Structure formats: C-alpha cells, structure tokens
C-alpha cells in the first residue's frame, strides 16, 4: 500500500478525469458555478434529492426535507437571478445531524423519546446556515442522543458506510456480487455523526453538521473518508444543539475537503448571546492561506498514542505522515502527554454525570414521548423514560447518577474533574514547549463490519474507539481528521491534527497543506457513476465497466 | 520516524500502558439492591435486567482506575473557559410571548397549563 496513494491522479475534492460534474466539486467550485449560471440552485437541489433517494439503503437520513429544500432553492435562484447572492453558501445543499433543533422539522435525536418532536426554533448554527442561503436537505441519522461510536444504536436503524459498496472495497473483498440491500457484511459508518459523514461521503450534500463530544465528528469522518472538524470549545454556539455533555459538546463540520470546512466555520463561528459559553472575542471569517513553506512548523507526535491496539496499517500511515512533514522541512518532535491512559476513564465519568443531568429534562410533560400511566408524576416519568430511552442512554443515566451520589461525588466526579485538569495541562505544556500542532491517528483502524461491531456493548466500543479523539474534547481544543489513504481492504483511514485552543485557523491551514500532499481517492459508488453519466452526454466519459 | 516508532513499539509492549483497552472486570457484589433501588428512584429510570446491573458494575470497575492518579493539590476543572468572564445578557425582555409554541409539543394541555398526574405519591416499588 503506497502512502501517496492515488487511484486516479487527481486532486482531492475534484471529480474524475477532468469532467467536473457538479456533485463532485468542492463547495467553492459549486458556488462559483452557481454564480456563473452553469447550474441553478433548483437543479443542484434536485440532483442531491435524487441521489439521496438512490442511496436510501445507507440510512444516512432520518428526515429528508424535500419540500423545504426545493422552496429554499427557489428563493436562492431568485437571488442569483437578481445578482444578490448571499455568499459562498447560497444555494448549497447541506445536511444537519438530527440533534440540532430545526424549526418545523422533526428533530428526533434518533430516539423514541423525541420521535415526533418538532422544535419551534432553529439552533443558532442552523439559523446561520439558512441566513446564508444554504439548502437544508434533511436531518441525518446518529446514535441515540449522540451516545455511541458506530451510529448503530439509533431508534431508526444503523447507518451503513458508503465505502461498503465502493468499487475500491469490493475489489479487495473479491466476493460474489449481490444487490446492495442484501449485503450482509456492510461496514459501520462510525459515530455518533455517522449519518452526516455518510451523507457527505456519498455526495448527497456539500457539507453536514455533526456534533462532537468525544470524537463524534472525527470518528465517522475517518471511517467515511471525509474531513471532520471539531472547533475550539466556545467558538461555535451550542444553542439549539440538544446537549449531551455541556462542558465538552461542540457542533462539528463534515465536508469533502478542508477548504470547505473553513468556509462553513466562517459562517458558524462567533459569539452568540443565546449561548453564554461562547467566547466574546470578535471573530472574522478567513480564507485559508496557502501554506507553501512548512520549515517553521513544529509537529508533535505524542508517544502515549502508540498503543498496542493500533492497527499496523494506521501506525504505518501515521509514521509516513510524520516522515512527510519532516521531508518537507518541518520539525517533527516526539512529545509526551503523560495522563493519556487515564483520559478515557475520566471522560467516562464526566460524560455519564453530565448525561444524567441533561437527560433529566425528558419527563413527558412539556415535549416528547409521554406514556399512558397517570397514577402519579413519578410513575409517569419513570414509565415515559423507560419507553423513550434505549439501553445505552438508560445505562449512562444510571452510571452518572451513581457517580453523583453523595458518597461517591468526591471519589469519582470531583476526582475526574481533577484528572481532567491534568489532561488539559498536558496539552498546554506540550504546546508551550514549542509545538504548533500534534499529529495522531483518529481511530484504531478502518471501519469494521456491523456484525463485528455489535459483539461488544456500546460503552466498551466507545471506550475503545474514542481513545484518540476525546482528549481534545476534555481540553476544549480544535482538532481535525483528514482522510489519508485506503487500507488493504480499500477502506478510508484518517489522521488527526490537534492545535492549541482558538488556533482553528492555523490548524486548518496546516490541515489543508497536508491534504494537498496526499491524494485521497474519490469513492467510486455505482449510484454516483450512474448520476454522473446521466448528466453529461456530451462530455467524454471513460469506458469503465460499472457492472459488477 | 520509522526507527523511532519501532523503538516505541517495543516500549509499549514491554512497559506499557494496556490500561484502557483490556479491562479487569471486578464485577459482582459491588452494587447492592439498596443502591439499585436508590438509583432507580433518583434517575427515574429502571435497570430493567440483570445485564444492566452488570453493566453498571463494569462501569464502576472501569472508573476505579482514576484512583491511581495522584491529584494532590489539583483543583477540579469545571470548564475550559474558567479564565474568562461569563457573558450575561442585559436584563431586558426582548423576546417571548410565544405561549402557543411552548405548549404545542405537549401531549396534555389544558388552557395554558401542562397537565401532570398527582405529584405527592412516591414511585411504587418495582420488581
């Protein structure tokens, strides 16, 4: 497996062989195409809707807001005709994870508790996207209440990784072909923002919002071969994001290239009076500078992240990435984050404690599911919660309550908060010692088959899968997962870059430089091939056999 | 980097922190029936099965590892933004008057009230 792996020699975020069909373009390119009238917002919206229908078997979307999207597309078209487009996001199809409140559109958190809940307001980040003219394609699937690392534990079924059906993966499996819907060995998309990652990976939208509490944006991004960006805590508003862990949650951005993530961040970041945990520092949207000289860059490799469970392939890619930085002139230094091995335990305690508190609001009275029992308030609450929550959620609530019991509070909860400070300080010390950015794996390995994944329970899986990602949430740092190469099984592997707090712009600049050095291949999905070929009859298409 | 990685690989296997991946399940006997009932009452969520109790015991055993860390003279970290002043909005009413929107998602409403069953009865004992 070669590192500078290039199945078809092209730049990431471009389309195949010079035929620039719309869905394969970057956000910036499509925006330019819209401005130049090469395509209208309505046509673009319809293409995405059609692709969503064709890729329905992925189960990436819980709700497809077709009518709303077409109406928004019409309005966008009117603006373009008058020459009054709102910006880079005007007319661009986006998808939103289903734990962000969307006015008038069901917001379920993939839970029975909220399966018919229709919020009367938009989350701030949703409103910001809509104010810029983005087209809301739908709400994406997730693990119930964003608890999990596979997008397998939601009330509306699991999300399938689009790469399960890619030519690249199928070629490595050498199995007999069969219809998508019958494939029993499909792979998980990662979680908990698996639906968003799959939606972006399958070209059904140009950007998607996820949430990131322990790695929920970066993990599925790595498994689905897309960019997953976690902003600094306090940079982007959480108002309207149904909370999991208030001190760690952030909205995450999933796109097919780093530049697109920067565009979306530019729209979303900034102080929100409705979220007092957003910082008041003025934020100016930026265009990522093109980094050409990395000789002054110092990249840290945390030695504690080299764990026995790390797959050989990912370890090799990590090593080669470090070599790449070094060969281009950067200084690559081994660093130490001594409390790394405790961070997953610490996260486990703090997360369950905050979950116990945040889930208390679901009692059936003001919104959400309500049971039929009317004997007493407590009986009603208990039955409502039993019916509305799945085992994972209930398990975390009970664990959290255990750690918060008077006799346990000091020994578990406060202890975990102290360990959290030690972990955050580890990062501060490393960045103060002259390191600009850390380079680590995102996941232990490639996406596993669903059948394998469900052999262990949710908590065990999360503890294993969040290992490289959750420390950044504990310390509130910005982090990004960039797809790097395909594994021996033809599946995406991502690597992670972590920066100091509020260095989001610098981090994305380095990530963009890194992305340009590697040529991550475009996924070859039958559904997209058909779409591409049906669009342009005049453009030359290669004669590739699409039949299995 | 490759040589460095190879050396680290040996270090990790010999020395190493296998702490987080493989767990020692200390299970059993840790969570008493009294605690279970107490938690169910506090959380208003029931365990539902023996497996759920076992999962809690595993979770507690997992959390025990924290005690190996020396946190002498370390202050708890509540928020990563602790060095900043929390933003407070001026105390002026600028929005509201949305009674209908607030009531619309409830299953049982009478005029402008949410309807709840009687509140002065404790949770009945469950099996």
TrEMBL record, chain A:
Its EC number is 6.3.5.7. GO terms for biological process: glutaminyl-tRNAGln biosynthesis via transamidation; mitochondrial translation. GO terms for molecular function: ATP binding; glutaminyl-tRNA synthase (glutamine-hydrolyzing) activity. Residues 46-166, 188-508 form the Amidase domain. The keyword Protein biosynthesis applies. GO terms for cellular component: glutamyl-tRNA(Gln) amidotransferase complex; mitochondrion. Residues 167-176 have a biased composition (Basic residues). Residues 158-184 are annotated as: Disordered. Keywords: ATP-binding, Ligase, Mitochondrion, Nucleotide-binding, Protein biosynthesis. Subunit of the heterotrimeric GatCAB amidotransferase (AdT) complex, composed of A (QRSL1), B (GATB) and C (GATC) subunits. This is Glutamyl-tRNA(Gln) amidotransferase subunit A, mitochondrial. It comes from Erinaceus europaeus. The lineage of its organism: Eukaryota, Metazoa, Chordata, Craniata, Vertebrata.
TrEMBL record, chain B:
Keywords: ATP-binding, Ligase, Mitochondrion, Nucleotide-binding, Protein biosynthesis. The keyword Metal-binding does not apply. It catalyses: L-glutamyl-tRNA(Gln) + L-glutamine + ATP + H2O = L-glutaminyl-tRNA(Gln) + L-glutamate + ADP + phosphate + H(+). It is found in: Mitochondrion. Pfam families: GatC. The keyword Cytoplasm does not apply. Its EC number is 6.3.5.-. Its main location: mitochondrion. Allows the formation of correctly charged Gln-tRNA(Gln) through the transamidation of misacylated Glu-tRNA(Gln) in the mitochondria. The reaction takes place in the presence of glutamine and ATP through an activated gamma-phospho-Glu-tRNA(Gln). Subunit of the heterotrimeric GatCAB amidotransferase (AdT) complex, composed of A (QRSL1), B (GATB) and C (GATC) subunits. Belongs to the GatC family. This is Glutamyl-tRNA(Gln) amidotransferase subunit C, mitochondrial. It comes from Erinaceus europaeus (Western European hedgehog).
């Amino acid at each position: 497996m070669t590192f500078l792996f290039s199945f078809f020699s092209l730049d990431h975020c471009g389309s195949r062989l010079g035929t620039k069909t719309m869905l394969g373009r970057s956000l910036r390119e499509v925006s330019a195409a819209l401005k130049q009238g090469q395509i209208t917002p309505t046509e673009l919206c319809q293409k995405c809707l059609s692709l969503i229908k064709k890729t329905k078997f992925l189960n990436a979307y819980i709700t497809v807001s077709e009518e709303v999207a077409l109406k928004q597309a019409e309005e966008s078209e009117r603006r373009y005709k008058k020459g009054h487009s709102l910006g880079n996001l005007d007319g661009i199809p986006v998808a939103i994870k289903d734990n962000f409140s969307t006015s008038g559109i069901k917001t379920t958190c993939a839970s029975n508790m909220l399966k018919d809940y229709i919020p009367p307001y938009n989350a701030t980040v949703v409103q910001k996207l809509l104010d810029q003219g983005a087209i809301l394609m739908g709400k994406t699937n997730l693990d119930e209440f964003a608890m999990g690392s596979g997008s397998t534990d939601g009330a509306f079924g699991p999300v399938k990784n689009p790469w399960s059906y890619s030519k690249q993966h199928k070629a490595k499996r050498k199995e007999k072909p069969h219809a998508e819907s019958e494939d029993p060995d499909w792979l998980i998309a990662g979680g908990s923002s698996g639906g968003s990652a799959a939606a972006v990976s399958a070209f059904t939208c140009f950007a998607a919002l996820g949430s990131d509490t322990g790695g929920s944006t970066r993990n599925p991004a790595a498994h689905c071969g897309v960019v997953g960006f976690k902003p600094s805590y306090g940079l982007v508003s959480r108002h309207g994001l149904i909370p999991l862990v208030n001190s760690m949650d952030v909205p995450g951005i999933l796109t097919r290239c780093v530049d697109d993530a920067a565009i979306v961040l530019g729209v979303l970041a900034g102080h929100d009076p409705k979220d007092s945990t957003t910082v008041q520092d003025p934020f100016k949207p930026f265009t990522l500078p093109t980094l050409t000289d990395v000789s002054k860059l110092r990249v840290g490799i945390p030695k504690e992240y080299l764990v026995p469970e790390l797959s050989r392939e990912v370890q090799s890619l990590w090593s080669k990435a470090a070599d790449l930085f070094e060969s281009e002139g950067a200084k690559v230094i081994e660093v130490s984050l001594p409390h790394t091995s405790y961070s997953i335990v610490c996260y486990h305690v703090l997360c369950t404690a905050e979950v116990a508190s945040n889930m208390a609001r679901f009692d059936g009275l003001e919104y959400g599911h309500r049971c039929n029992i009317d004997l007493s308030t407590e009986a009603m609450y208990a039955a409502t919660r039993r019916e509305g929550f799945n085992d994972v959620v209930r398990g975390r609530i009970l664990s959290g309550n255990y750690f918060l019991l008077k006799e346990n509070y000091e020994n578990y909860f406060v202890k975990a908060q102290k360990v959290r400070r030690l972990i955050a300080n580890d990062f501060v010390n490393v960045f103060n010692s002259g390191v600009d950015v850390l380079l680590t794996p995102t996941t232990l390995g490639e996406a596993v088959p669903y059948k394998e994944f469900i052999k262990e329970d949710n908590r065990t899986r999360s503890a294993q899968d969040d290992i490289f990602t959750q420390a950044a949430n504990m310390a509130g740092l910005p982090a990004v997962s960039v797809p790097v190469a395909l594994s021996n099984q033809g599946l995406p592997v991502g690597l992670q870059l972590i920066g100091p707090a509020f260095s989001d712009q610098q981090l994305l600049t380095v990530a963009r430089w890194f992305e340009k050095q590697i040529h991550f291949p475009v996924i070859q999905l039958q559904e997209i091939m058909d779409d591409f070929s049906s669009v342009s009859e005049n453009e030359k298409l290669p004669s590739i056999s699409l039949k299995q | 980097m490759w040589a460095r990685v190879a050396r680290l690989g040996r270090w990790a296997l010999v020395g190493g922190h296998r702490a987080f991946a493989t767990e020692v399940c200390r299970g059993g006997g840790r969570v008493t029936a009294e605690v279970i009932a107490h938690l169910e009452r506090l959380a208003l969520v029931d365990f539902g099965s023996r497996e759920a109790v076992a999962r809690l015991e595993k979770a507690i055993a997992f959390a025990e590892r924290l005690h190996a860390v020396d946190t002498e003279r370390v202050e708890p970290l509540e928020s990563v933004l602790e060095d900043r002043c929390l933003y407070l909005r001026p105390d002026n009413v600028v929005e509201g008057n949305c009674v209908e929107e607030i009531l619309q998602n409830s299953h049982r409403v009478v005029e402008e009230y949410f309807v709840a069953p009687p509140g002065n009865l404790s949770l009945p004992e469950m099996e």
